[in-house]
Amino acid sequence: MKKWKRSTRLVDMTQQLTLQPHRLISLSEFANRYQAAKSSISEDLAILHEVFHQEGYGWLETVSGAAGGVRFIPKTTREKAEEIAERLCRQLESPDRILPGGYLYLSDLLGDSLMVRDIGRIWATVFAEERVDAIMTVETKGIPLAYATAGLLGVPVAIVRRDSRITEGSVVTINTVSGSSRRLGSLSLSRRSLKEGSRVLIVDDFMKAGSTVRGMMDLCREFQAEVAGVGVMAELLAQERLVDQYYSLVTVAEVDERERRIQVLKGNLFSGEAFTWKS
């Protein structure tokens, strides 16, 4: 087996850590891979930790003991998160986004892989210490955000359907009621897509009164699962809210269809002490 140069080793080690976030990798695994002493591996990891931390990419968490090792925790800073939120506000305020009925066009934003990745990193930062076992979202627009977040937390995605499919196998279905129109609907989740007792992070693209999020919370109860948190890309400022505890990246304060005007503000994630950003 070849012996790696240090420069090459650092590049490959970075790749191994960032592609497997939250996975504990032992020093022995690195030492065997690179044919290097554990003391040299420890020095390499110290360099990577310093760079990750200084550049706001995250940091390396060390676990001591015989079964210990190191894991990469992806993070972002409050400053970078605010930049993303402000950029999202500017894009959402374009009058061209207004659709009949006061709806907003979001598909281009959810198709922007860089924007979606950045939002996923924000949720991975906010919920990094919540011991999340799975990400839950409802089809279809929330799926890109869910996978971006799941990839950085190293957990699977459970996709809730509005109509059950034969390819899903046995499903759990609940009825929902829209908070605004009082319209009946249903949400279904395959029994195989979520383990009972899981801690679930709910991620969605847009929340009005919160009936869809509330439905996903009700589905979690059917699986004896615990909701670890809720993160939505955008929320509509509403009088009636079916969800109390959640974080929003931006808030749509006003949609004036007649005047073709949209007002968007940074969400509650940045208000007061809603979330404590660690340096």
TrEMBL record:
Subunit structure: Homodimer.
Name listed for the protein in its UniProt record: Pur operon repressor
Similarity comment text for this entry: Belongs to the purine/pyrimidine phosphoribosyltransferase family. PurR subfamily.
Domain Phosphoribosyltransferase: 114-248
Alphabetized GO MF terms: DNA binding
Keyword annotations: DNA-binding, Transcription, Transcription regulation
One Pfam family in the UniProt entry: Pribosyltran
GO biological process: negative regulation of DNA-templated transcription; negative regulation of purine nucleobase metabolic process
InterPro entries hit by this protein: PRTase-like (IPR029057), PRTase_dom (IPR000836), Pur/Pyrimidine_PRTase (IPR050118), PuR_N (IPR015265), PurR_Bsub (IPR010078), WH-like_DNA-bd_sf (IPR036388), WH_DNA-bd_sf (IPR036390)
Domain Bacterial purine repressor N-terminal: 5-74
Listed SUPFAM superfamilies: PRTase-like, Winged helix' DNA-binding domain
Keyword Cell wall biogenesis/degradation attributed: no
Keyword Transcription: yes
Taxonomy, superkingdom: Bacteria
